[in-house]
Request: fold
Amino acid sequence: MQVRKRIEAAASDMTASERKLAATLLADYPFAGLASIQDLGRKAEVSAPSISRFVAKIGLGGYQEFQRDLIAELKEGQQSPVEVHRADRAVNGGYLNDFIARAADQMQVAGDAITQAQFDRICRLLSEPKRKIFVIGGRISDTIAKHLSFHLRQARTGVFHIPDSTEVWPEYLLRMKQGDILFMVDFRRYQANLAVLAETASATVGARIILMTDRWLSPIAKHASEILPVPIESGTLWDTYSPALAVTEALVTRIAEDNWDETRDRIKAWDALRLPQQDMIK
Reply:
């Protein structure tokens, strides 16, 4: 079990000082837990013995084991396809059916990991016309971000997909105002420049960050007000984005259906302005 999950599971039985320690750890997870026990104690304003009792309460044998588990999580979150690949992986039935079954299992996990209340809350945020929506993803995960932005633009105005060139990012930051949404997609082998963008948008502009990421959590998480945890492990050399796409399609479909009158009128206006196919061929 991840250390974060251990902390969350034990939250209801924590003392006031343990809750303070938990908040310190989760605010800069997992990096806060990699400091010495003395430095962590000073940061959280708790004693070293209190930290030892906290570690025991979450089911670990000591601070060294606590840190070993955090380091293992960090390494797992940075694994490349070369490290993930297993030559001895069993395939049940035909390859296609086996792969689809694995993806379907992960979609179910995603459905269980995201509560209905959180899903509804994010749909409301993405629907509010007073908020502009800015969307960006990583090297590969930007395909999910583009899918989201394209369908949102069909349903509402004020949706912008941020290009991958960092040279144009200041233009989009200048467009943002406090309360606007920056929806970010970042899966393992995270991009450091996306975390910098999130920090700048949150601290300088006051944008609200919604993050779609995996169970190891992108560094963007420390700046996010909403985190959508999506499983990506397929058991093959490539991580699967099928669950991320399913969650994305659920979001945009719910938003379009809940605001159908506006969506219908916008699609009609959009289609009326599309260039005729015969003119495009010429």
Observations:
- The longest helix spans residues 95-113.
- The longest strand covers residues 208-213.
- The chain has a mean pLDDT of 87.
- The chain has two domains: 3-77, 116-273.
